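Hey, quick one: can you model this chain's 3D structure?
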Amino acid sequence: MIIVSKYLIPKGFSGFTFFPFIFLKKKEDKANWILLNHERIHIRQQLELLVLPFFVWYFLEFFIRLILYRNWKKAYYNISFEREAYLNDNDSNYLSNRRLYGFFKYVKSEKSFF
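Sure thing. Here's the predicted structure for all 114 residues.
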């Protein structure tokens, strides 16, 4: 289910997913299939981890990466869930071909994504 609300989306973001909802900042973003695919990848991740553990992991990993990189934006883009979503959001077949717990391969990486 897609909900449009400019007030629920943090500054600097276009969308946010909290299973089963995708929140978008602008009505015209409903036509942005790359953004929607990105958010659908997050829905799949949340389902795999039963939603609450997803958010615990997400914020824990963010804070660890924030300590490592000392840069908020770099920490965000290097969260394993975001890496998977950003690197595959332009592939319309990704969710059809994605393996269960596909985000695991993005947890450990020697290179910074951003």
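One thing worth noting: Helices lie at 33-48, 52-69, 72-77, 80-88, 94-97.
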